[in-house]
Amino acid sequence: MRNLVIALALFGVAWSPSLNARQCVAPASPRMLQTGDTAPDFELRGTDGRTYRLADYRGKQAVVLVWFSRAFSAG
After folding, report:
1. Which of 25, 56, 61, 63 has its C-alpha lying 20 to 30 A from 38's C-alpha?
2. How far, in Å, are 5, 35, 49 from residue 19 at the CA level?
3. 27-65 burial: b if 16+ Cβ within 10 Å, else e
4. Are 52 and 46 in contact (CB under 8 A)?
């Protein structure tokens, strides 16, 4: 009986973060952006600890680099 209680307690602790992850706030009515639409504002924390917002770069020219090391390989 004691092992069952311990197992259930461990399962509950292990499962609780997944419950919190599902409680993220989703947009009220998501819709696909169309060509020419303004991108919604968002912010991200950089590796240097600073917070970067998309709105800070509005009206400026930007270069976006995207790569995948295995894009042209069999791997």
Report:
1. 25
2. 21, 36, 28
3. eeeeeeeeeeeeeeeeeeeeeeeeeeeeeeeeeeeeeee
4. yes
What pLDDT digit, counting tens, does each position of 54-71 carry? 999 888 987 888 888 777
DSSP state of 55: G
Radius of gyration of the chain (CA): 22
Structure tokens at 71: 């894009």
Whole-angstrom Cα distance, residue 7 to residue 17?
Answer: 17
Q: Is the pLDDT of residue 43 over 80?
A: yes
- Count CA within 13 A, CB hemisphere, residue 71: 4
